Amino acid sequence: MTIHLRSEVMEYSYQFTHTIVRKPAQSITKGLRAVDIGSPDYNQMILDHKDYVEALTFAGVEVIHLNELDKFPDGQFVEDTALCLPNAAILMRPGAPSRLGEVDEIAPKLRELFKTVYEIEEPGHIEGGDILVTGKEILVGRSARTDEKGVSQLSDIVSALGYVIREVFTPPEILHFKTDCSLLGPNEILSTKRLQASGCFDGYEVINVADGEEAAANAIRVNNYVIMPAGFPNTKAILKDHGYKVIAINNTECAKLDGGMSCLSLRLNLM
Fold this sequence. Notes:
This protein has 271 residues and is of the alpha/beta class. The protein contains 7 helices and 15 strands.
């Protein structure tokens, strides 16, 4: 299936007017993790989340705040619950059973903001962390959390809206597709070497994170700024050498729950 991508995606793939964030709950110590590297410190995560919100605001977006969800320890990772395009929102169906209820919690806000809201339905599974909207297509990485039926439903929805979708396969050692990549420009991707080696970014200009700094690959481009996790000086220098304005914030606590910069927000263009 190949059709021309709507111009809105090319223009708005990193230009946003609003973001949605959810305050972390004290139950974060019960959050999912692929590898146990320790429990997150709630107080530190709250401080880091505050810095994250301030970075988004500095980048020029209005931040919409949602209350914490104590019954959903991963609820602050709102990106996995939806895909927001300029003309519609699509509610996801997370592959982790403990996260399914998060979609119902965020749905009312998205229905308030968007005239058109679609839903991924059972038996499909798909999470926003596996979806990268570029300047020419929507890349979806099959993973442990995103399956064939979920990708098929998403393809039907976005194709009807006029977008191109391309399925790629996330290497098994990577939780989400965007764990190892992020969008820098319409045709420019920040990626680990291991993900680039899969061939999924052929035709793009790829900037590799520095060796040993693979966790820096999950960043977000918000208007004129790249927001990335702190502690990766070589990758930060690479981005600056390429002309990007960089904001680095601490992500140590979210990282204990496999979370990164993109996971913590839904980014919207509501113009």
